[in-house]
Amino acid sequence: xxxxxxxxxxxxxxxxxxxxxxxxxxxxxxxxxxxxxxxxxxxxxxxxxxxxxxxxxxxxxxxxxxxxxxxxxxxxxxxxxxxxxxxxxxxxxxxxxxxxxxxxxxxxxxxxxxxxxxxxxxxxxxxxxxxxxxxxxxxxxxxxxxxxxxxxxxxxxxxxxxxxxxxxxxxxxxxxxxxxxxxxxxxxxxxxxxxxxxxxxxxxxxxxxxxxxxxxxxxxxxxxxxxxxxxxxxxxxxxxxxxxxxxxxxxxxxxxxxxxxxxxxxxxxxxxxxxxxxxxxxxxxxxxxxxxxxxxxxxxxxxxxxxxxxxxxxxxxxxxxxxxxxxxxxxxxxxxxxxxxxxxxxxxxxxxxxxxxxxxxxxxxxxxxxxxxxxxxxxxxxxxxxxxxxxxxxxxxxxxxxxxxxxxxxxxxxxxxxxxxxxxxxxxxxxxxxxxxxxxxxxxxxxxxxxxxxxxxxxxxxxxxxxxxxxxxxxxxxxxxxxxxxxxxxxxxxxxxxxxxxxxxxxxxxxxxxxxxxxxxxxxxxxxxxxxxxxxxxxxxxxxxxxxxxxxxxxxxxxxxxxxxxxxxxxxxxxxxxxxxxxxxxxxxxxxx
Length: 593
What we know:
- The protein has 24 helices and 5 strands.
- The protein has helices spanning 6-28, 30-63, 79-103, 111-117, 124-139, 147-164, 169-188, 191-203, 208-227, 247-279, 283-300, 309-317, 322-342, 349-370, 377-393, 396-407, 410-430, 435-442, 454-458, 461-464, 478-484, 508-512, 538-548, 569-588, and strands at residues 471-473, 492-496, 502-507, 552-556, 563-568.
- The model has no long low-confidence stretch (mean pLDDT 86).
- The strands form 2 sheets. A 3-stranded mixed β-sheet has the order 1-2-3. Strands 4-5 form a two-stranded antiparallel ribbon.
- Strand 4 and strand 5 form a beta hairpin.
């Protein structure tokens, strides 16, 4: 063991001072945070390439396809592979999950949840777990995409780096958003899509302060992925530069249909999951059955397999009869629902794009039957892709920019924006969740987006209460109370019963003004049944105060009703206002001065 000499001690102190100075500079410099985001983007672009290459390698190995083909558009995969690989893949995923559960029993926290509840704190270990699970699920043909793994990796790297530099809560949340922006930008070769995915889903708001790091990460990650020729989920299409204004009513109608269909898909996933859980208690059997169902659907069409980017490419460049398009929509929707519900890890991001594009083509075909020659199927496919994607994912501007970066056509973007707005409005009013937040809802989490509500849950009655409230027995005579607690000594006094439990609150001024016939304090007691628990958060506490019309409430420890402290409404509102103002400054980038 090396001896700690005076010289070594001096060197260690110098290094510590340099580390502190570096962290202080990064915390206080907007340029440093942008540079950090660009560094994260480069790492995420490399990871996106690696994860995509790993999944495609599994496709080639397990399904016997060549490197020039995509699994979802392959036409020559033997039936025994289609049935066997997803089923055994489900068993392999169960074994992996079992091993991971012993090593990492806590379920992973995803970037949306981390930014909403935990101030942007994510684990790199969770990123590795989700990454391996999504690669295996996608690699064995389950109808899920890698976007969950990409976003988890980007958010995990950003959180670890931000924590190392001791970034403030607001800056850390922005950096996690920047990491996911880089992940989605690299995945789709679309930096603006990645940036607005981060703003809408992970950060929860748009601000000038967040713009620069998010764009830096998205652009850097996309450039790295291009340099490596990742081509993970790149969507390529050509659209007309001019569109007829008569297409706008059709786009609005298609958007409405996409919104309704997206609600059916999301509810279908939840219903299928509940049905499988009740019917098949064994997780291993559920995964194997899910894999077998996907394989059976793949014998009808390989569009059921994997994310579907090969099938989406074909949807844009080929003409397909309406009857076949409808069959492909049903096959992909069923495969996606079964894959997610049975336990395969991944998202519906790309599957929703494919289902939407096929739905747009089918819609164009129906209109052509009713009023030939009908709209351009390619334009309707782009509109359907974006509208259905926005309805499921909950990121309307991200989907609009995906259409723009896919086609380069501003004319088509106008149609897309109209359809996306209608689809999003319908889902918001009739359903209220995106797919990610719907999954949180099913788990019992009160998360409807990435807006920072973690500080609300942290700001509890137990933290805000005064821990030494004045208390007296409820049987105390009024005269004795007036002598013991003169006016000005306290505002509110807690009453205790004979067993020392909470029995109500008495206002000191009211006790001194009480008529002579009042014998004991118990006659003046208020709010006997209105109390706060230590874990009651600030918003719930405000609702309780309003319902009770109280100026102060006792904080008790539950059924035992032992008094822990006293909280006044004035103090609660003041602390809440201070925290709201603090979060507003963080979001807008305005300093405390």
